[in-house]
Amino acid sequence: MHWALVSLVGNDPAPGAMGARVFLRRFAASTPAPRVFLVRDHSPEEPLRRPRLEALQGWLHGLGFRVEWVDLGFVEGHQEPLVLNLTGGDKATFFRLYRLASARGWPGFLIEAHGAQPVLVELSGWVGPLPKEEGLSLEDYLALYARPAGAKPRGEPGRVPPALAGVSWTLLDLEGEEVLYGVEAGRPLVFLPRPHPAFKDQVNRLREKAKRLGGQQALGVALLPMDKVLGQHENNREWVLAHYQTYAREAGVLALDPREEGALGRALSLPSPNPGAKDLPFRPPEAGPVLLGLLSEQPIPLLASFLVHRPKEVLLVSTQDLERRLGRLASAQAAFSRLGARVQVRQVSGPWALDEVEALFAPVLGAIQARGLSGVANLAGGTKAMALGLLRVLPPGFRVEYLRGSTLEGLPEGDPLPVPWAEVGPEAVLHLYGYQLERDPKLGQIQPHQEVLARAEEFLRHVEDPQRARAFLEAWEKSFAAEAEGFRLRWRDLRPSAGLALEYLAFFHLHRLLTPRGARVEPGAHLRPLWAHPGLNPREVDGLVWHRGSLAFVECKPDLRSALSKHQEDAALFVLQENFGGVFGRGLLLVQRGRWKPHEKPPAELPWVLRNPRLRLLSLEGGTPYPGGRVYAFPEELEEALRDWGWP
């Protein structure tokens, strides 16, 4: 029998490539010119999706495959036996293909690469390590990710820091910047050898470049500035080090002590799961509806099911590693409890542990049926292996949901359910992530106010005029009952006063446009992580918008050139988007000046930023078209700028 392979693909090519290697060794070793059918999923398209998938097609041709792009209907109508690789793509398409394979007896598998070593998971439930020869090499990742991103290999680096020893690195040139690129245990690693004076800016930029050069699985690696830590008084060193470690954690970057040789290899080795330390079973639910969920880095899809069904009980499962790194279960338990549910949380030993997921949920589902309770399972979170464990124990007819865009879909079919997103505000959403919103009490009670708006606009047209600055600040103090002494002390200089005026323009016009449509708009505030060192200086944002299941963060700067090149606000907004929503995250960068003189070159980052579908650039100077995108006039083109997001 000559098998053909079906690979579900999303924005990343690595799952399709690894699946092809598994297929060749296990199903088609003697098949000449094997066939592979590639099925695109429905996830939001990332900027590099097209060149990456073109690279994947060429890579598969190099292995001898005949490649054909097909839709889901083709697979469902196919009569000959197929092997399904369900590693990539979204969970909704994964669910439909899993059901199809189960009904027809087709073999299938997925590769779980979130742990220390890649693991092969068969749809039958078998789990085992992925042999090294079925994984991807450094050259494979260069072909599938680095080159499509525009990076140029420059050979081996002359020397690497001792902490990075043990990994084979190659030197890349990405838009004139040197990057070290390596692969360990099937995971791309990215390191920027040229240190940035501000560690927070460095890790933000590193996170952005890591995803560009290696996709979702890439890990940025940074060296902690221990010289700055040790230069502090010994009583302050712990506090300063905690700041740097928090910046790295928020950016999703692995931060190492540069003095420890081989620190990278040790950090990448997760502790072996302890079978004797498995979590206790769930207590049987007593009242419905019951929400079953797998929790990953993004809890917003679970919030959607919660708002639609208002469950009495919520049962969540995540991995030990994710909880150790991010504390998502503890945050979700506290947040859903505040919203009125009885919440139980459990941990499994790893992202591949579908047997543990089955053991946790099977008794619960039995109790739900026995007691006649209503229930729903949300598949959006967790890994595919964990989702497989849940699907294998779901009884026929049990409702399964997936968040697509801002609506909740029943799987495999069903009418989409509108989500009452406006029933919660940004503070409740941030609690799910383990953050709280802190406002500056000196600023008073900020509201839309025409006089303050007029004074802010007049001041920004004449930013060097202290009298106009004073008029703006006096209008603010009077209108918002600002704390007089502290307010005047903080905002007595022109530059910060202009920043405050620009932030107010952003708040006023976003509030005017979006609040009538159900959005919640907040002025600038601090995001304080509840898990961090109590003395940490929290991250400041210049505004927030919660609308239709998305959190948008606002940043305001004097000019676009310095915002991108010096302050690297695009990277900061990228990290906020990734951390607080992923594909549901948004960013708005508002500048006073968005143009430059004809003889000046645009910032090197501009083309990439313009291609980011979840980031918008706006300028008081007016709209400016560029190759690949546009800087929108603010506020005249604000509605147009937000239209592609489904806003307003």
**Beta-strand residue fraction:** 15-25%
Work out the radius of gyration. 26 Å
Identify the overall geometry: globular
CA distance, first residue to last residue: 54 Å
The class by helix and strand makeup works out as alpha/beta
Spatial order of strands in the largest sheet:
21-22-23-24-25-26-28-27
**Number of E-type strands:** 28
Q: What oligomeric assembly is this protein in? A: single chain
Mean pLDDT: 91
Sketch the major β-sheet. 8 strands, mixed
* Total number of helices: 23
- Low-pLDDT parts are 272-276
Helix content: 25-40%
Structure description:
This protein is an alpha/beta fold. Strands 21-22-23-24-25-26-28-27 form an eight-stranded mixed β-sheet. α22 links the parallel β25 and β26 (615-619). α2 (49-62) crosses α5 (138-146), α12 runs antiparallel to α15 and α16 packs across α19. The longest helix is centred in the last third of the chain and has 21 residues, at 494-514. It is globular, with a radius of gyration of 26 Å. The model is unreliable at 272-276 (pLDDT under 50).
